[in-house]
Amino acid sequence: MKFGFIAHPTSIGLKRYVKMIDMMERTSRDLHDGYSRELWSRRNLVPFMEFAPIRSACGAECAGWVQYLPLTAEEMLDEPQIILRRVVEGVEQMADKGADLVGLGGFTSIIGRRALETAKRAPVPVTSGNSLTSYAGFKGLRKVFELMRLDPEAHRVAVVGFPGSICLAIARMLLEIGVCLDLVHRPGANPDEVLSHVPPEWRNGVTLTGDVADCYPVDRFFVAATSTGGVIDADRLLPGSVVIDVGLPRDVKRGSKRRDDILVIDGGCLTGSGAVRLGTESLNFSVKQQLNGCLAETMVLALEGRAERFSIGRELPPEKVAEIGRIAEHHGFVPYPLASYGERLAEDTIASFRRFHLKPNGVRAQTAPPAGDIETPAADGRDSRLQTINRYRRHINPMMADFLHMLHCDHVFAKGEGCVLTDTEGRRFLDMVAGYGCLNLGHNPPVVVDALQRFLAEAQPNFVQYVSLPERTALLAERLCEMAGGGLQRAFFSNSGAEAIEAAIKLAKAANPRPRLLFAENSYHGKTLGALSVTGRDKHQRVFRPLLPGCFGVPFGDLQALERELAKGDVSAFVVEPIQGEGGVIVPPLGYLAGVQDLCRRFNALLIVDEVQTGLGRTGRMLASQWDGLEPDILALSKSLSGGLVPIGATLSKPEAWDAAYATADRFLLHTSTFGGCNFAAVAGLATLDCLIEQNLPARAEELGAYFKNELTRVAADYPFVAEVRGRGLMLAIQFASDFRGCVAASAKEFATRLPGDWHLTWRFLPDAVRDDLMHAMNKMEETLGEMFCMRFVTKLGNDHNILTFVTANSSTVIRIQPPLIITREQIDAFVRAFAVVCDEMSTFLD
Fold it and tell me: What is the pTM of this model?
């Protein structure tokens, strides 16, 4: 059976989209067949898409096509009789083309006394699709109640647009399940006439109003399907309000400000399951998500072979609405997932709105609480996870929450011990990220925990650093200087690696007041303004420019480039990482760091070594710079200095540098930190140093790191998409090189060749700026595909093998491997086995 469907744009933007489609389709024919006057003549309907064949989940087949009447609802309202003739003409054209049934989308089903007149004149049966649209809107609201774990009978629902056909059908279904309704009708309508549409046995459960504003103070659930649109003011909705916006045009007016405390759900839409095929599909690309109910009903009737006027007029019998819903689901069309303004809504997001309907003590915010609406404690692991995710999304960083959700990495952990994290649902994960180098001793190291607990139990003083001389802080300073050696004898304490670098920059500028600072390209030193100024990655800096003046990058590993800059005699300091961590774990060439030190001494520039990520045993030495015998003027530490339990940073310096910067009455307090240097953090630092030394963890990192690297290299040898396994000690990285260069251009060329017409010619005559922008976009897309390939490894290791990894900050094609230094050989072997499995599963293409 064949069907036709007449759609129309619901906004000016979509109308212009239809105009673009029309231009592209005609141009394609013109290029293919040559010019004809008929091709470039006025059209009643604009061709959009053909579905041949459609195959449902149960094997039924049909075919059909969709065409646009290129008018918005507002434009159709101006000339209803002319539009009726155009709709009928469109139905006739589709019938001539072989359609046995024609669906009327949106406003085309309202013109002509809710399509009764259209049906009378049409040569084939027509349907408005309102029955399945109503079913989908009703099921969408039920799904919201289900996800929010609320009892529908305990909440009033405002139905806006009653007694329009969709609102009338949904209202009756809601009344059947015991929901009380506020029915919003047109202003001036006769209340008795409106009430006559409600069966007598349900009238006690409804109130009538001609003004939707009456509902704003009392209702948090709305269903809307008016013919005019724009009747609900988003600014006036209560927090936690949910609107099932069923009709087109949309009934919710965009508010004056973005609101994250309301949900506007696209009601009346259905999605084809994976078993549904809408014509020839390729690469899982198919137009079968968020289908309007009117189109879906037309398809379903065609699949059933039922060429009948199923949904016409105001009255949609509830039994027919339920019938078409059952049939649709049988064929694989379901009213989920829900979406908002076309964007898919995570069920977690909907579930989180439960909080608005409960008082802090667990009682629902409106009226008396039914038993079903009592808040249960978040002892349930999934509930705890959902609450955390949505609090994070609302109050911290919604993009990060969505990013991790997209990667299936949005874990919430309840326990950390050693190298293992346990999530709120009891699943255990091997942690190979370890706080990006913060957890050299693992999660909650007992030695550090015990030391901190003793400090607190004894009520020892903590914040006394600016009214006295803190004992533990002074001891930690001494221990760090002894550990570092090389003449480092002064320590400044802060709260993070970025702060430690800030302190180093200020010290260098004060001690050696020259105008320029040098840094290595591809480096990473932090995201505060000063640290960012010496970070060698444009993507981190771009938004925040102008940064500190006088900061210049030189290639990492290039002594000649460094010498050229130092020889100018205006460089205060050069800041460098012994191994570039966030740059992708880049190990410098042999002799580079020693050469850097010699050059800095020769040209009287201070050498700042950033050991924030490399320090404290990570690379097989207590400091990575000790591999090269460095004696820097300034050295920055952080991350694992407190065992990962207390924020701390330390900037060590030679006394000559410190004295030149601060050893006067006016200068000795020029750089301070409120929290830096507290005894509590120092206690953690002292315990951490003891543990690193007593357990000889640097030597362990060297031994296990060599084994780990060899095993990963062995596995990677079979897979060309692994470019390199590199690093030192337990600071390792896997560099991926899944090459997508040229793929987008090849795809575009292939389509230009296969599509009817001469699209190569069209490309040649695009404006230069358009071509340049398209080429840039293609190149960035190819880079992104390589990054996506790498991120699949992160996702698969986490979801299939319960192993946590992540990419480095400067490169999304590099996976960092930085486990706690207490990792066992058995845990390393488990990672290697998992990595081998994932490599095999991702090896469809070996380059």
Answer: 0.84
pLDDT of 381-429, one tens digit each?
Answer: 778 888 899 889 889 999 999 999 988 999 999 999 999 999 999 999 9
Q: Which ranges of 568-668 would DSSP assign to H, the alpha helix? A: 592-602, 655-662
Strands 814-817, 46-55: pairing is unpaired
Specify burial of residue 221 (Cβ count, 10 A radius: 0-12, 13-18, 19+). Answer: buried
Residue 714 has which token pair?
């062995």
The residues facing 580 across adjacent strands are 586
Q: Among 697, 698, 689, 713, which Cα is nearest to 625's?
A: 698
Question: Which DSSP string do the residues of 118-143 spell out, in sequence order?
Answer: HHHH-SS-EE--HHHHHHHHHHHHHH
At 368 the three-state DSSP class reads coil
The whole-angstrom separation of Cα 788 and Cα 796 is 12
CB 577 within 8 A of CB 520: yes
CB atoms within 10 A of CB 193: 10
DSSP H or E run through 634: strand 634-637
d(CA 406, CA 514): 47
Each residue's pLDDT tens digit, 697-727:
999 999 999 999 999 999 999 999 999 999 9
* Closest residue by Cα to residue 452 from 152, 686, 129: 686
Residue 723 burial (10 A CB sphere; 0-12, 13-18, 19+): middle
Question: Is the CB of residue 301 less than 8 Å from the CB of residue 307?
Answer: yes
Burial category of 548 from C-beta neighbours within 10 Å (exposed 0-12, middle 13-18, buried 19 and up): middle
What three-state secondary structure class fits 838?
helix
Which helix (H) or strand (E) segment holds residue 475: the answer is: helix 471-484
For every residue of 797-830, DSSP letters joined together read HHHHH-EE-EE-SS-TTEEEE---TT--HHHHHH
| Contacting residues for 295 by C-beta, under 8 A, at least 6 apart | 5, 7, 66, 103, 105, 129
